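BUG: 3D viewer hangs when loading the predicted structure for this chain

Environment: internal workstation, default settings.
Expected: structure renders.
Actual: progress bar stalls at 90%.

Input used:
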Amino acid sequence: MTQEPTDPFAAPVDVLPTKDGYDRWAEVYDGDDNPLVALEEPWVDRLLGDVRGLSVADIGCGTGRHAVRLAAAGAAVQALDFSEGMLARARDKAGELNIVFHVHDLAEPLPFPDEIFDRVLCGLVIDHIADLGGLFREMHRVCRPPGFVVISVMHPAMMLRGVQARFKDPASGREIRPASVPNQLSDYIMAAAKAGFAFDHLSEQSVDEALANRLERARKYLGWPMLFLMRLARGGQGASLPAVNNPSKAVPSASR
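Structure tokens produced before the viewer hung:
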């Protein structure tokens, strides 16, 4: 679907089916200087903690940006995605690391036995998922007590800015948007609660001056909530969960 902007000076936009969009994005994803990715990755590391010797699932692994880092830190990683283009990039980066890749559509049950993983990660994926309840139940099923699940997602407030997952096609110059679902924070929280998780961490993270100075693309979002994070305990108790070094803080209101 082509979405022509009302502003005649704005770049034209193509909205593609999610899989097709990510297959196209794979070519440039890792060099995109995406401020959301830059904000998210340190938080994922804090929330997961030490993964040495652990079994970890990377649900919607994309180009393997988390899977490669986790395997290098000593985890045994099972990584899955439905984009063949993204998985090709991930396999190229993985080398001899302990990662098994799977082609899998998250609309279907996860291809794993019950209670097999110590940690489950789903990074920047669930804004493309319509059946949140099904996916959260599956993540609960494959995570063994007292393990936990870490979720990151673009904050729904970004859609108020007209922002969703997107990239510029280097060949055509057009903006490509893989189809997204307008889920709200309440949708994510209720899906987790109904799946049986206990909440250990919820936070909303915004762009600060340090990130804006490092990535100029981030500056226009300064002070705006960009990232939502959840850490969900599988066993109903938080005793085994690592401390988070940077405590969550209130996100200032902003108008742009």
